[in-house]
Sequence to fold (175 residues):
Amino acid sequence: MSDLHVTWDDYHDLIETLAVQIYESGWEFNQIVCIAKGGVRIGDLLCRIYDVPLAILSTASYRGKNNQQRGQLVFSRDLTMTTANLGDRVLLVDDLVDSGTTLDRSIQWLHHHYGFYIDEIRTAVLWQKACSSAKPDYYGQYLPDNPWIHQPTAKYERMSITDLVASRRKVVESV
Fold:
């Protein structure tokens, strides 16, 4: 199994690929729920492209060095959203499906907490790994060899604020 290194250009291209794929499916949705942290940027861009409201479901499961150790999945108490109610046709987005646990349990969480609003949930991710038990409705790229994905945001998980301050000072001093 090799690692997959993703640039910002690759990342944004996959979001656009996903947006087109969803559009070409003909399915109309009126709410995006993104799974934070990984799905936030994807949800943000898709809600801008489709002009529908965005809600955020915060979860956490990765911990340890460079956030590469999977632990217990924890959910926020509620969704963060700017509308009075959740839409009835929900597009649930995340960056990837690995084991499938987060996607499956997020669907269950939404039905448990907001099921009285929801008629349909479909799922979209940038990367679908072959090892996943969850099969998203839409995905930007299928990964048959299950690589560890190094997203463009990964450098910030290895960086402390003091490291950032020091590197920014070097940039300013060199100008």
In short: The radius of gyration is 17 Å.
